[in-house]
């Protein structure tokens, strides 16, 4: 069953989408995240008929997001839904999960981590652009090799704000 909730943030109202975890009756472990969408996000989720509004199932996510935006949380500890994305996308997203708070890496760095190079950097950029878990899976920490902020589904200004919140230099490690 698909569950959803909305949670306020300094970026606007976020839409959280998840799947009920087997055996979970709701509460702190009630939903494995499928998507975190920003207002106006390119390709962001939208509530569909048949989805269940279940804010209680996302209470743990809301607490962590609040702590992140208040500067008290540097790493999310959340359950993600299994089977989302292709094998290649999941490999790229795993690299995103390893980028430390307050640091940035280049698209080329991510490509090297998954064994891609040259034209593979474009495929990495596409996989990053399809990350359904904005903010919690930190695709905003990936920038151009020249230090420039490149595309972000939530908009480049939002990417700048998230990096600023983390005190991240716009430079490649």
Q: What is the radius of gyration computed over CA atoms, rounded to a whole number of angstroms?
A: 16 Å
Top-tier CATH class of the largest domain: Mainly Alpha
The strand line-up of the biggest sheet is: 3-2-1-4
- What count of domains describes the coordinates? 2
Strand content: 15-25%
Q: pLDDT below 50 for ≥5 consecutive residues: which ranges?
A: 24-28
The tally of beta strands, per DSSP, is: 6
How many H/I helical runs? 5
If you consult CATH, what is the topology of the largest domain?
Arc Repressor Mutant, subunit A
Would you identify the CATH architecture of the largest domain? Orthogonal Bundle
Q: How confident overall, as mean pLDDT?
A: 91
Helix-and-strand structural type: alpha/beta
What is the H/E order?
EEEEHHEHHEH
State the end-to-end CA separation. 41 Å
Range of helix content: 25-40%
Q: What would you give as the CATH superfamily of the largest domain?
A: Winged helix-like DNA-binding domain superfamily/Winged helix DNA-binding domain
Name the shape in a single word: globular
Largest sheet: 4 strands, mixed
Q: Based on the structure, what is the oligomeric state of the protein chains?
A: single chain
């Amino acid at each position: 069953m698909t569950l959803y909730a909305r949670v306020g943030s300094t970026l606007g109202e976020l839409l959280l989408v998840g799947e009920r975890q087997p055996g979970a009756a709701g509460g702190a472990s009630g939903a494995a995240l499928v998507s975190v969408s920003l207002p106006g996000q390119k390709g962001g989720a939208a509530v569909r008929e048949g989805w269940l509004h279940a804010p209680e199932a996302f209470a743990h996510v809301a607490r962590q997001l609040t702590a992140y935006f208040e500067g008290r949380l540097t790493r999310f500890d959340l359950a993600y839904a299994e089977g989302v994305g292709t094998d290649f996308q999941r490999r790229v997203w795993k690299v995103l999960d390893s980028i430390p708070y307050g640091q940035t890496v280049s698209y080329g760095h991510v490509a090297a981590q998954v064994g891609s190079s040259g034209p593979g950097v474009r495929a990495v950029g596409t996989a990053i652009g399809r990350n359904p878990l904005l903010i919690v899976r930190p695709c905003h920490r990936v920038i151009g090799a020249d230090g420039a902020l490149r595309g972000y589904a939530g908009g480049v200004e939002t990417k700048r704000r998230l990096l600023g919140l983390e005190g991240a230099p716009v430079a490649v490690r």
